[in-house]
UniProtKB/TrEMBL annotation:
EC number assigned by the record: 5.3.1.8
Assigned protein family: Belongs to the mannose-6-phosphate isomerase type 1 family.
Name this protein carries in UniProt: Mannose-6-phosphate isomerase
CDD domains hit by this protein: cupin_PMI_type_I_N
GO CC terms, sorted: cytosol
Free-text function comment from the UniProt entry: Isomerase that catalyzes the interconversion of fructose-6-P and mannose-6-P and has a critical role in the supply of D-mannose derivatives required for many eukaryotic glycosylation reactions.
Organism taxonomic ancestry: Eukaryota, Metazoa, Chordata, Craniata, Vertebrata
Catalytic residues (UniProt): 237
Cofactor note: Binds 1 zinc ion per subunit.
Cited Pfam families: PMI_typeI_C, PMI_typeI_cat, PMI_typeI_hel
Keywords: Isomerase, Metal-binding, Zinc
Required cofactor(s): Zn(2+)
The reaction(s) this protein catalyses: D-mannose 6-phosphate = D-fructose 6-phosphate
InterPro entries in UniProt: Man6P_Isoase-1, Mannose-6-P_Isomerase, Pmannose_isomerase-type1_CS, PMI_typeI_C, PMI_typeI_cat, PMI_typeI_hel, RmlC-like_jellyroll, RmlC_Cupin_sf
């Protein structure tokens, strides 16, 4: 009998402080829907659902016929399931971590290295950089959200410096002048000026940031000010709530915000030569996330085989899954997660006449 290469997973939830609380979190709702024994604590945050083999969140295999207890352990002994190209390129490891995020407050500012820099940092400080891989990211919106990604066009930042004195105070006159002058110079001058502005903002003392945000909120509340989007929109609303007051609040005046019509964004990587993110330019990631929508009138749907291991998340709908290697059908409903080995197809039979919404993460080289 062929070895089992498709099976359900129980995945790890991360309860970071910035996550939405209790059943307000989509992560918690997915967990509760997929596991009737799950107990959701309404006073705790449910920030991220991790679907993969990360050491701090290796998914458990929900199949008693498989000896290995976690996905990482199983893949280590069944590397062919990754697909030939993926196996060779990523040294027999699953090269992506599939996540669902449910965000209540601003996350910390993050910058992920490119492959070359990741390898160097791993050698220099493995305790801080536990692997040598880069971290390309792609975010897909399940519900409306705003994300800050890369830098805005310099002209917009200069406008904010001119019209928002509190912002210029934190940046500093010298760095602000340098950025304004870089408009008429080459890209290297722009990058250097952005570095200076970003460094000044990120190194500002929290006490000073709070003082300037309070001044900004007071000034805006006392006048009909619609001079710039950052003043009249999220920055002020964030500033009115003490727990939101932090440096990231003002980063909105530096950062690029994808258009509301976009349903995904790609945070750019950074290199040793250019450690400060360049003007927003979506990279081509090593991985893919497929969105699959199936009308409830379709009684059976086939998930096609790929030359890559993949992980499928059911966001809406109820099905039974069967494959050529499975000893029994697999029940899959909202919040359910399925691992699919390379070159395996899966037949999904709808058990209820309701539309399906699924996402499938894989690595197509």
């Amino acid at each position: 009998m062929a070895a089992q290469r498709v099976f359900p997973l129980s995945c790890v939830v991360q309860q970071y402080a910035w996550g939405k609380m209790g059943s307000n979190s989509e992560v918690a709702r997915l967990l509760a829907s997929s596991d009737p024994l799950a107990q959701i604590s309404e006073d705790k945050p449910y920030a991220e659902l991790w679907m993969g083999t990360h050491p701090r969140g290796d998914a458990k295999i929900l199949d008693n016929s498989i000896l290995q207890k976690t996905l990482g352990q199983w893949i280590a002994e069944n590397q062919d399931c990754l697909g030939s190209k993926v196996k060779d390129t990523f040294n027999g490891k699953l090269p992506f971590l599939f996540k669902v995020l449910s965000v209540e407050t601003a996350l910390s500012i993050q910058a992920h290295p490119n492959k070359e820099l990741a390898e160097k940092l791993h050698l220099q400080a493995p305790q801080h950089y536990p692997d040598a891989n880069h971290k390309p990211e792609m975010a897909i919106a399940l519900t409306p959200f705003q994300g800050l990604c890369g830098f805005r066009p310099v002209e917009e930042i200069v406008t904010f410096l001119t019209k928002v004195p509190e912002f210029q105070f934190l940046i500093g006159d010298n760095a602000a002048t340098q950025l304004k002058q870089s408009l008429s110079r080459d890209s290297q001058a722009v990058a250097s000026a952005l570095q200076s502005c970003f460094s000044h903002l990120m190194k500002s003392e929290k006490k000073v940031v709070v003082e300037q945000l309070n001044l900004l909120v007071k000034r805006i509340s006392q006048q009909d000010c619609v001079e710039c989007m950052a003043c009249s929109d999220n920055t002020v609303r964030a500033g009115l709530t003490p727990k939101f007051i932090d440096v990231p609040t003002l980063c909105e005046m530096l950062s690029y915000i994808p258009s509301p019509s976009q349903d995904r964004l790609f945070p750019p990587a950074w290199s040793q030569e250019d450690p400060y993110l360049s003007i927003y330019d979506p990279p081509v990631p090593d991985f893919t996330v497929m969105k699959m929508e199936v009308p409830g009138s379709v009684t059976e749907y086939r998930v096609l085989a790929l030359d890559s291991a993949s992980i499928l998340l059911m966001v809406q709908g109820t099905v039974t899954a069967s494959t050529r290697t499975a000893q029994a059908t697999i029940s899959l409903k909202r919040g359910g997660v399925l691992f699919i080995g390379a070159n395996e197809s899966v037949s999904l039979k709808l058990t209820l006449p309701k539309d399906l919404l699924m996402f499938r993460a894989c690595c197509l080289l």
